Amino acid sequence: MNTIKKITLLQFRNYSSASFDFTAPVTCITGPNGSGKTNLLDAVYYLCYTKSYFSSYQQNAVQRGMDGFRIEGWFELDGREERIACKWKGGKKEISANGVEYEKLTEHIGKYAAVMIAPDDMELINEGSELRRKWMDGILSQTDCDYLERLMNYQRVLQQRNAWLKMQATNPSTIRTELEFYNARLAADGTYIYECRKSFIVQFRPLLQNFYEQLSGGREQVEIDYESDLLTKALATWLDTGLEHDLRMQRTLRGIHKDDWAFSLNATPLKQFASQGQKKSFLFAIKLAQYAYLAQVQKHLPILLLDDIFEKLDQSRMEALLRIIRTPQFGQVLLTDTHAGRVQEAFGEEAQVQFINLSHHP
């Protein structure tokens, strides 16, 4: 099992300096809105993935008026303790384990897993394909370091190919050596990524269906399908045959950077036809399936981070969710709520729940 025992924050979001111990399987962080409940969950997430769950702009994680932050966490994995520190100052990020700095941030990814469920996650269903690609890439990058490496290469070469296409509009050239190099690199890395995504869906689909059934009482059938240009033609072929079109549009129009995942309910698109309640059940099912997938592949239970979710769930869904996360298939849970009583009642008197009340913190 993968757990966090203690965390200290320095100039992180609204915290000047604070320290918290996590002493129970379930920790509920309570306090009024604006007291830093979500920020504390985000700090745990940051230690696992070296980035915020809520913002890609690092400066947003720094306390107002300050020039940097530091987070330190004491993790336990399979009986071994390790101290992870993340420091960001003047645009430079440093991550260390037991005082030794990593040479590359990617060395840390996949070591400690956490799955966050937050109110804005509904965007995963309602918004465009970029969010779904990011979500998928986040999971696969944790379980396969080659995937992360190849994805970064693909994105870099894609930018170079697009720059070359733009240049042809103003300064055309008949020499295609550069283009051939880009195409070969994109085809190699893109095909690897495509194969990973394709096999992921096969493993992931039954997990999603199982959790949705538990959350909704088994009344509906959900599906997740992979949509990719590579399902019909090899990437090398697309890049070759689509060149005229790419030159006209000055960008690469086909490839794994256009992939998407279609979510459906009873064979109809979830985004357009599902009710809010059905979408919530689907969202929770997809996040719990993500948790179960990571646990299967990494062979240890991730930390589950639940941000203000009881506010958004009706009684029957909340009870179904609690039944699931209280099974031995789930490990440490950190959650936020404005009402401590509601959480204690939800988990039951006999459950080991620790309460951290932030209204008593500076």
Secondary structure blueprint with pairings:
Elements: E1 2-12, E2 15-21, E3 26-30, H1 37-49, E4 68-77, E5 80-89, E6 92-97, E7 100-101, E8 114-117, H2 123-126, H3 129-143, H4 145-170, H5 177-216, E9 222-227, H6 235-241, H7 243-249, E10 260-265, E11 268-269, H8 270-273, H9 276-298, E12 303-307, H10 315-325, E13 333-336, H11 340-347, E14 353-357
Parallel strand pairs: 3-13, 3-14, 8-12, 12-13
Antiparallel strand pairs: 1-2, 1-4, 4-5, 5-6, 6-7, 9-10, 10-11
Helix pairs in contact: 3-4, 4-5, 5-6, 5-9, 5-10
Folded structure, characterized:
The chain is α/β, with parallel strands linked by helices. It folds into two domains: 1-113 and 300-362, 3-Layer(aba) Sandwich (Rossmann fold); 127-298, Glutathione S-transferase Yfyf (Class Pi), Chain A, domain 2 (Up-down Bundle). Helices cover 44% and strands 23% of the residues. It has eleven helices and 14 strands. It has a six-stranded antiparallel β-sheet, with helices on one face. α10 links the parallel β12 and β13 (333-336). α5 crosses α6 and α5 (177-216) packs across α9 (276-298). The two termini are 32 Å apart. The mean pLDDT is 92.
Task: Describe the structure in brief.
By secondary structure, this protein is of the alpha/beta class. It has 11 helices and 14 strands. It folds into 2 domains: about 1-115 and about 300-360, Rossmann fold (3-Layer(aba) Sandwich), CATH 3.40.50; about 125-300, Glutathione S-transferase Yfyf (Class Pi), Chain A, domain 2 (Up-down Bundle), CATH 1.20.1050.90.
Order of helices and strands, N to C? EEEHEEEEEHHHHEHHEEHHEHEHE
Overall CATH architecture of the largest domain:
3-Layer(aba) Sandwich
Q: Count of DSSP E strands?
A: 14
Give the % helix. 40-55%
CATH superfamily of the largest domain: P-loop containing nucleotide triphosphate hydrolases
User: Could you report the average pLDDT, rounded to the nearest whole number?
Assistant: 92
Proportion of residues in β-strands: 15-25%
SSE class? alpha/beta
The number of distinct structural domains comes to: 2
